[in-house]
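Objective 1.3, modelling of assemblies. Example input:
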Amino acid sequence: MEIRRIGPEIRRLNNLLKRETEKSAARAGLDGLTGLHGWVIGFIARQEGPVFQRDLEERFSVRRSTMSNILSLMEKNGLITRAPSKKDGRAKQITLTPRAVAIDRFVRQDIERLEAVITKNISEEELKCFFSTIDKIKNNLEVQDD
Amino acid sequence: MEIRRIGPEIRRLNNLLKRETEKSAARAGLDGLTGLHGWVIGFIARQEGPVFQRDLEERFSVRRSTMSNILSLMEKNGLITRAPSKKDGRAKQITLTPRAVAIDRFVRQDIERLEAVITKNISEEELKCFFSTIDKIKNNLEVQDD
DNA sequence: ACTATAATGTTAGGGTGCTAACATTTTTTG
DNA sequence: CAAAAAATGTTAGCACCCTAACATTATAGT
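Predicted structure (tokens):
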């Protein structure tokens, strides 16, 4: 029997999810929001206080430069604004534009729809195991970092 | 309790794995082989007959254009050669260079090392469940395609 | 045989993700 | 307080991955 490896399996799954996410977003008429945009909007919308870029990096496990680029694109597309914090001149506060607030509802629906497709015929038990394993892998990678 | 979603979880995990893979490859003195290169070499090395690009697309779940680009890079780096098949003028047979064959052993070691780190403290049972869930997700995504 | 369709591969264009190097501001430390 | 260190964000450069459009060769349908 073939031995399966975590690395390439996750990579492949990520590729498949990426394709499907884009198709799904297109079907929902949200062509511009193919990447992390929808998730970023949802996160900011459900946050109490002000949101800074560093919060988003942490949340989505990307590097500073990556989030900087993504937010630049979202800003260009009129989804967010960036303003320097008065308390800390380094930090930039991210705010949703009215346009982003308006489409948040549709984005959420689209996300729910795709998640329902993904998890079809997968039991609570299995999902629990799945996430638990993911957590262990993450932990193993962090420990690896010395 | 926070509801966890498959999409972003896989995305995050993929990001973390990508970082660690690159660091791992660098530690092993394989700086050029950060992406799929090591896996492609391993796959070709363990194949009986001739290998064509389409086999690699299938294997690694990437599109034609992606594999085409990756192989172009590998060719430029002296890891593979591409020659048109005599039986089918469209298909190009991929062959490892002596250099690639020589480093295959080290690549395998590096892969095994990282996989061992990743799966630490994860039981056979859990891994089985993990892969089974991945298979179900893949299946759900395929069915979705009509 | 001849046309239509399918299969294989490439290129162009764009988003995502990384590291590394940089700038700016804040905090820590001596 | 002044210098060193840390935190926040940007930019450049590169790899990966996608879709769309293209070229070429093979196969099917008539």
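The two ends of chain A are 35 Å apart (CA to CA).
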